[in-house]
């Protein structure tokens, strides 16, 4: 939300996206300069696609309903599909320069996709948490650990 003293630092309309990107830069530089940088994975994602045209059809098969709840009449929506893709950037010294990832390649399920539930699913997997999944959706979601497990040493050329 904008205030009279300071502009909003998010990328939502009608805010200036410059301020949102300045915020992302400040978070990155703070992490990059910290002693924990070599143990960091920064996930930058959005809650929507920003209104841009999406050429990839949304997945409608093999997507589990998170909790089995069915919406009210007249639509009875089952929450068993995903919406449009949203931009996500993963930053870490453990990721090869120039990496572009398009999907989780059939893991943990043949129909798995990256989506918002991938974040808690990744945390559960990386830290080997024994607690149950939060929902059927994060149990199904693709996880990001594969993109940070390709190097034996962290990169030192990060800006």
UniProtKB/TrEMBL annotation:
Asked if the keyword Transmembrane helix belongs to this entry, the reply reads no
Pfam families named in the record: Phosphoesterase
Q: Which domain of life is it from?
A: Eukaryota
Gene Ontology biological-process annotations: phospholipid catabolic process
- Does the keyword field hold Transport? no
A GO MF annotation of the entry reads: hydrolase activity, acting on ester bonds
Keyword annotations for this protein, in alphabetical order, are:
Hydrolase
Q: Which residues form a coiled coil?
A: none
Put simply, this protein is called: Phosphoesterase
Q: Give the source species.
A: Escallonia herrerae
Phylogenetic classification of the source organism = Eukaryota, Viridiplantae, Streptophyta, Embryophyta, Tracheophyta
């Amino acid at each position: 939300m904008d205030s009279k003293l300071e502009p909003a630092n998010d990328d939502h309309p009608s805010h200036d996206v410059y301020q949102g990107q300045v915020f992302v830069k400040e978070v990155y530089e703070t992490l990059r300069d910290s002693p924990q940088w070599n143990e960091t994975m920064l996930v930058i994602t959005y809650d929507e696609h920003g209104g841009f045209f999406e050429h990839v059809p949304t997945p409608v098969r093999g997507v589990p309903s998170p909790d089995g709840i069915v919406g009210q009449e007249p639509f009875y929506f089952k929450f068993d599909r995903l919406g449009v893709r949203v931009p996500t950037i993963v930053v870490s010294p453990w990721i090869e320069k120039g990496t572009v990832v398009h999907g989780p390649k059939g893991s943990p399920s043949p129909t798995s996709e990256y989506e918002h539930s991938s974040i808690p699913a990744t945390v559960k997997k990386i830290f080997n948490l024994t607690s149950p999944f939060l929902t059927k959706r994060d149990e199904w979601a693709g996880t990001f650990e594969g993109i940070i497990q390709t190097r034996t040493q962290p990169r030192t050329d990060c800006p």
